[in-house]
Amino acid sequence: MFKTTPLKRLRELRWLEMLPDNIDVPAVFDRPDQVVPIERATVDEIEFALVALARQQSDLYRLTGALGDVLKMARRQGACGADNAISAAARDLESGK
Fold this sequence. Notes:
Helix content: 40-55%
Strand order of the largest sheet: 1-2
Largest sheet: 2 strands, antiparallel
Mean pLDDT: 95
Shape: elongated
Strand content: 5-15%
Number of helices: 3
Number of strands: 2
Structural class: mainly alpha
């Protein structure tokens, strides 16, 4: 009989199927950055990885917001296709003054 691993059993759950093989654990105190196999990760290592991912998520949210704002500003100026978005957004900014 073949036994399934704990990780495999967890991945069978729909909401946990995305569990990675490894997690990136940022430097903490005197420990350097490290890649840890998820099957050997401690609770603390998962916590530290989660905090780092939350920071990345926040950065991505701000980036998508900024790009979306540039797009809206450029579109207000009639920009489309191959037009330079930054130039059009700057025109929009200047026209609002």
